[in-house]
Amino acid sequence: MSQPLEIATKRKIFLVGNPNVGKSVLFNALTGAYTTVSNYPGTSVEIARGEATIAGTTYEVLDTPGMYGLQPMTEEERVSQRILLQEEAFAVIHVIDARNLERMLPMTVQLIEAGLPLILVVNIIDEAERMGIAIDIALLQQRLVIPVIAAATAHKRGLDEIRTAISSFAGGRHPAYAYAPDLERDILRLAVQLHGDYRVDRRALALLFLLRDEETMALVHRIEGESAAAIAETAKEIIFSHRSDLHLRLSMERKRICTELLADVVSNTPRQGRTFGEKLSALTMNPWTGVPILLAVLYFGLYQFVGIFGAGTVVGLLEGDLFSDIINPWFISTADRFIPWLWLHELLVGEYGILTLAVRYAVALVMPIVGTFFVAFSILEDSGYFPRLAMLVDRIFKAIGLNGRAVIPMVLGFGCDTMATIVTRTLETTRERVIATVLLALAIPCSAQLGVILALLAGVPGALLIWTIVMCVIFLFVGFLTARLLPGERPMFYMEIPPLRLPQLRNVVVKTLTRMQWYFLEIFPLFILASVVLWAGKMTGALESLVRFLAPGMTLLGLPEDVAAVFVFGFFRRDFGAAGLFDMNEQGLLSPVQLTVAAVTLTLFVPCVAQFLMMKKERGWKVALIIFAAVTASAFGVGWLLNIFLLSMGWLT
Amino acid sequence: MKCAFCGWEIDEKQIGQSERCGQCPGGCRKVHCPHCGYANPVVPGYLQRWMKKEDDDPVT
To answer: What's the ipTM?
Structure first.
């Protein structure tokens, strides 16, 4: 079916550039809300299209996948290249990062060489200015002979200038940048053999052909037909005659061209030393200062704020004063009056009742703890501390077969180990993924579990220190052992560190509320379900049998038999188990040694059902079951040894 | 949105497209950064509207 004339002849604008330079922000700013996303024909790569009306003319805008140059390495880049080489553009807007002009300008040179109708947007100019980088936009425009606009699209700066540049754009030819004479001769030798009708300059096509770019070779074969074999033969001779790496040679030539283009264009205003943020950033990554900073963060952020304030003060108010003294007695007395059936009475307000257990655990115990945890987490996240933590622990993690990248699943594990297990797939090798999965299952408690344990142990002098030492030793020992059992490569870790910044109150509030809302929606139904299952277990006697079955294990650990129920709770959800331990301690059922042993064993104890299912999904049945068995054995083995050790040393007694 | 870990600009189109663990009732509320894998929470609608309102009418 033929398209309406208006659509068929609509002028096209392609947005191109490296990933993460603000192309999509510009796309959204130009097109507004009405955009469509569809796979590029014959590929699984998604392309966003939208319409922009500028000075009365409607343009079709395409947001192409990020690319680093005209020669593609990935399927996404291949699609971007295909769009540039084969589709008719009214204007190609190349978006580059003002902070990395030298690195990004070679692609601009390539696009100019290709004869594409180019507009250059030097984006993120505000950050560059803050860094003391000054760019003479007028001089750059004069040298490139294309429109050049300074912009900060995220802050709407430069958008009007971009629209004006589009509406007044006339296209036109651009200067060709000369390479070394021998290269120029060879490029010309190949370019003159291209006689077909191409959308881009033949010289640029010849260059890509010499670099053995598959898309270009296929295009030339398709268009040149029988002559293609002769062209390929010429290219082969040229490549052979150079012997040295042609890629490297061309890159060096483009670098030279860019250096000449940027002479006097970019100037760095000398600053008096580094800023406070930069100094602090360096301190957080230096092992001598970074470790004390980390300990301070853990002490104030986790222990004082989450453990003492959240799990102590706020839980005390909600759980002790509100639920135990007012809400639960009212529930129970009301149920006593109106519910004569034992099973329903038990289901609602019994030992494992929905109202007296599930609601109380979710609202009075878990919410204050995860709430304060998420506040601390959001502050650290918004400050940009986590990537620095990754750099700091990189060396330690290498000893256990991981690298700094594994900080991501580990940090996320404090929020939810199940989700963190899926994130292990971002690690490069299977070996790393297995090691990280084991450590998540064994030694990384979730936030609520951690908060409850901090609050419980804070009341026993020395207990928290013992728990911390045991967890660190186990983490490193198991990691070290697993890394030895699974030999393999240790991939390098490098990442671009975003700037350290003062956390923004609004960001912290939004992130905290977001996480709390999702967490509550997630745990509330599960807590109710766990409560119903435990109620059913109690009514049928199955729970008692299970507790009896686990009782010998509890005796070995020196714990009261009733603590078995806490481990059953913990298998439903880690936070549910921790809340159970909190209850038992409140009832005065545990001595300091028992509390410490129970806290250590429960932290190490088997992952919850959801995490186990995720391990099975990610690593398969065999590995998941091995991890399950190893974690269970380690948890009870360490608990048993710790109990013997503490009793023999007479500590905490 | 920007990744809270590495600062990568995450395409709005990728929200809801990332790999899910399938364990959360009501569906996944995370956007995994395509660059580093960090799980960024999806801000609920009412908070997005509040932020947009703040952006449109900045209090000076």
So the answer is: 0.89
Question: Which ranges in A89-180 belong to alpha helices (H)?
Answer: 101-113, 125-130, 137-144, 159-167
Residues A240-255 as b or e (16 or more Cβ within 10 Å = b) = eeeeeebeeebeebbe
**pTM given for the model:** 0.71
A419 and B39 within 8 Å at the Cβ level: the answer is yes
- Secondary structure class of A499 (helix, strand, coil): coil
Mean pLDDT along residues A601-614: 83
Q: What is the pLDDT of residues A497-546, one digit of tens each?
A: 888 888 989 889 999 999 898 888 877 888 898 899 989 998 999 988 98
Q: Are strands A148-150 and B39-41 parallel, antiparallel or unpaired?
A: unpaired
Q: Do B23 and A495 lie within an 8 Å CB cutoff?
A: no
- What's phi and psi for A168, nearest 5 deg? -105, 15
**List of E strands, A530-572:** none
Contact A514 B32 (CB under 8 A): no
Q: How many CB atoms lie within 10 A of CB A57?
A: 12
Site of tokens 């963190």: A420
**Which alpha helices (DSSP H) does B1-60 contain, by range?**
45-56
**What is the nearest CA distance from B60 to chain A, expressed in angstroms?**
15
The whole-angstrom separation of Cα A233 and Cα A235 is 5
CA–CA distance, A336 with A338 (Å, rounded to integer): 6
Rounded to whole angstroms, the Cα distance separating A138 from A293 reads 46
How far is it, in rounded angstroms, from Cα B27 to Cα A241?
Answer: 59
Residue A13 and residue A60 in contact, taking contact as beta carbons nearer than 8 Å: yes
Tell me which of B3, B6, B55 to substitute to probe the interface with A (most A C-beta atoms closer than 10 Å).
Answer: B6
- What is the distance between the alpha carbons of residues A418 and A271, in angstroms, rounded to a whole number? 46
Tens of pLDDT, residues A557-577? 999 988 888 888 888 777 888
Report the gap between the CA of A644 and the closest CA in chain B (Å): 38
CA distance B2 to chain A (A): 9
* Rounded-to-integer distance, Cα A444 and Cα A603, Å: 8
Sign of the alpha-carbon dihedral angle for A386, A387, A391, A397? positive
DSSP, residue by residue, A580-607: HHHHHHHTT---HHHHHHHHHHHHHS--
Mutate to test the interface with A, among B23, B29, B33, B36 (most CBs of A within 10 A): B23
